[in-house]
Design goal:
The structure is a homodimer of 100-residue chains.
Chain A lengths: L4 H17 L2 H9 L6 E2 H8 L3 H13 L3 E6 L2 E6 L3 H14 L2
Antiparallel strand pairs in A: 1-3, 2-3
The structure holds a DNA duplex (30 and 30 nucleotides).
Chain lengths: 100, 100
DNA sequence: TCAAGAAATGCAAATATATAAATATATTGT
DNA sequence: ACAATATATTTATATATTTGCATTTCTTGA
């Protein structure tokens, strides 16, 4: 495998997505959202036990990097996984870290 | 799912492993090492086209975080994936970023 | 023991990230 | 329009990461 300029764009994208996920709170968020679960910012910030603004920031990062989608419903905004394959990635991470 | 203190340790570990992987050059390194491939530092730094010391640094991070193992053979040091499940993770990342 | 090749380390500068407090925006019900 | 609730944004500070140069360590062959 050779690193062409085209491929370096792909690598950049993959790295950005992984960087978005690679944070304890954000992994926890993804684990909450496995399957088709949709949760609001408040539900997530209460479960995590961190500031609302910090939670919103984390969710913004995950959305910006294509990991999550959001959907407004009145005062609430629900967040959920963008692709089903991301559930698989979360599982995979779990496996990789358990088999240490 | 609730975040207990025990679980927060697991999250920390998972995040550290992902953080180690979440870099364009390091993803490229992992893609080189899929399967049972073993490569030396020089081979990797030449393929990546970056400094030897930078390459060594990246490899050190991956080794430190439990992603790679190394094996000395004379002047050379070969690096390879620590667990087979990491090949799966690399594939998974590829899938997640292609289906965008 | 010495020279050469291979890899690792220390260092410094630039850049990026995380966090929370304060503030702003959006939406609903009255 | 106003109060209340839910989210998002701004800002500042602290901390971490990336990179290459220079240097050092480790190993082999002469």
């Amino acid at each position: 495998m050779n690193i062409t300029e085209l491929e370096s764009e792909k690598l950049e994208k993959a790295a950005n997505m992984l960087k978005a996920i690679a944070h304890p709170m954000r992994i926890a968020i993804l684990s909450f959202l496995e399957g088709d679960t949709k949760l609001t910012v408040t539900e997530i910030h209460e479960r995590l036990g961190i500031e609302q603004s910090t939670t919103s920031h984390h969710l913004g990062i995950l959305k910006d990097k294509g990991v999550l989608c959001s959907q407004r419903d009145g005062k609430n905004t629900f967040y959920f996984l963008k692709h089903e394959s991301l559930s698989k990635l979360v599982d995979c991470i779990g496996q990789c870290t358990c088999s240490e």
